[in-house]
Amino acid sequence: MSTQATPKNILIINANPKPYSLCRALADRYAQGAEQAGHRVEQVDLRELNFALNLSQGYVGAQDLEPDLQALQAQILQAQHLVWVYPVWWGSMPALLKGLLDRLLLPGFAFRYAKGQVLPDRLLKGRSARLLVCMDTPAWYFRWLQGAPAHRMMKTAVLEFCGIAPVRISEFAPVLKSSAARREHWLAQAQALGLRGA
After folding, report:
1. How far apart are the first and last CA of the chain?
2. Is 170 helix (H, G, I), strand (E, B) or coil?
3. 111-112 and 121-122: which strand pairing?
4. pLDDT for 5-51, tens place per residue?
5. E strand or H helix that includes residue 28
6. Which of 79, 103, 116, 156 has the fewest CB atoms within 10 Å distance of its CB?
7. Rounded CA gap, 5 and 27, in Å?
């Protein structure tokens, strides 16, 4: 009897605005592993999408979605597993990713409040997520002294709020001054996660 997992639709979103980065390499190696295991993989580089970062009217006025955001919403709806790859800058995420979340995860798509409800309906249930997060800060310092603000925001305040669960986090740190051997070890970890579709 085969022990191979059922193939998943996996969407990998690289949110590092730099064209060449460890994030990009991690995304590629995760994709390589996932494809080797027979998963269906799509990759999106946010830096290549054309959209305004600001939710200019908040939630009180309409702001049309650009074609790239419409396409990304469709990809998210097709995905069973979302892989978000990004660096931590100033304890949070790059403006590119924050702008995407503001513009993309809208009422009616990611969540919906009904009259009298304190908490919204979570419209993206049925999907899991993996965060591949690069940091220059040592992971122990980020977690225990700074309180891991980027992790808590993305996992709890964003993805789980929309119904995406479980959300698992893999940290790659400290990137600054890391050796070539250490980076290759991290890339192998990403590939192994892809092989498992995890």
Report:
1. 22
2. strand
3. antiparallel
4. 689 999 999 999 999 999 999 999 999 999 999 999 999 999 999 99
5. helix 22-36
6. 116
7. 21
Cα–Cα distances (Å) from 198 to 11, 77, 192, in that order, read: 12, 18, 9
**Residue-wise pLDDT tens digits, 137-160:** 999 999 998 999 999 999 999 999
The domain defined by 9-196 folds into: Rossmann fold (3.40.50)
Domain boundaries, the chain: 9-196
Residue with tokens 């603000």: 149
Q: Collapsing DSSP states into helix, strand and coil, what is residue 177?
A: coil
Does the bond joining 94 to the residue before it have cis omega, within 30 degrees of 0? no
DSSP string, 87-122: E-BTTB--HHHHHHHHHHS-BTTTEE--TT-SS-EE
Please say whether the beta carbons of 131 and 167 come within 8 A. Answer: yes
Q: pLDDT value at position 117?
A: 86
Judge if pTM exceeds 0.90: yes
Which pLDDT tens digit goes with each residue over 113-133? 988 888 899 999 999 999 999
